[in-house]
Amino acid sequence: MEQAKQSKIMIVAGEASGDAHAARLVREMQSSGSFDFEFFGAVSHDLRAAGVEEIVDADHLSVVGLFEIARVLPMFWRAFRKLRDAAVKRRADAVILVDFPEFNLKLARSLSRRGIRVIYYISPQIWAWRTYRLRAVRRYVDLLLTILPFEETWYRERGFSKVEYVGNPTIHEIAAESSREEFCGRHGLDPDRPVISLLPGSRHKEIVRILPPMLQAAAEMSAKRPELQFVIVLAASRSDDEVTEAFVRSGTARGAVNVTVVKGETHDALNASDAAAVTSGTATLETAVIGTPLAIVYKTSPLNYKLFRPLISVEHFGLINLIAGERIAAEMIQDDFTPSGLARELARLLEPDTNAAFRRKLAEATRKLGSEGASKRAAQAIIGFLGRADENRRGNT
Q1: 10 Å Cβ neighbour count for 74?
Q2: How many whole angstroms separate alpha carbon 200 and alpha carbon 257?
Q3: CA 295, CA 176: separation in Å to the nearest integer?
């Protein structure tokens, strides 16, 4: 039996969602038997569990906001140098960059100039903002794998042909483990009364800015409809103290809202909910796949928004709206995100006819994401690319 060829691959994922997607990709590549892979790079929990050697701890790289990044710039530079030097010293056959464009596009430039092939999985959302980065993709990326159905066409229309749509890996991971009745029973909720989930984001700064107006909206709704039940859905890394601080910031008494706090149960909470207020990001797509009617919200610092807003070039902020090609979910961004506005929209989503129609639209839109198996298709595309590169190298020697 012919022995599998060895291949050294550096992989860089800078955030929790990217780390999870990257880990599934690694496992699919390892199980293919096509190469004897040696993986190393910037890793967090899931990539460590997949056996990827840590060069840089990716937990320290997840930062949002211009000034937050500026404060930790020396740490970013140290991480950049460690990864660059490791790829060169080990003579990596390729580097797989996962999302995280601010860091990864700079790394792509450096490594490509040193003769290392660059594969980008979960392409940077340059169709949304800072489109000038397309120049860097054209120049330094050898294979681009997209996970949103319109992205491949967008790139090809702009002259970049080394792109392939592999489907959305989120489809595979989104599934509720509990029924509405089970979730409600576990948390002392009444399944016969309306449930509304509040998803304030996974970062501390997001919770500070977004959860208080969510709570004010919940209090306004509860004053009119005391039967409503609210669920604050926190990432596993967040603390109950942050919720307490948000109540103080909002000026809302905790007893004014029938609220339950859950951690690490996002999909179960959404599955049990009649409606949800969701911070803009991947959670909006998860909510859509589960089929829960939602309002999309976001708020950052006034200065960050003033600096970034002119760079955004898409009609919709919400991923599900971009995929649908229309404004399915209301978008309340920055100054448009008010407690009264959110309260009105959530009340509208609870109306039976509106709720049912919204769920039908979500189902229609999410069908565009394709079937399960995105990680396997991505692995096959990468392995095919590596195989062709290997043959070309042998042909040139």
Answers
A1: 8
A2: 16
A3: 20
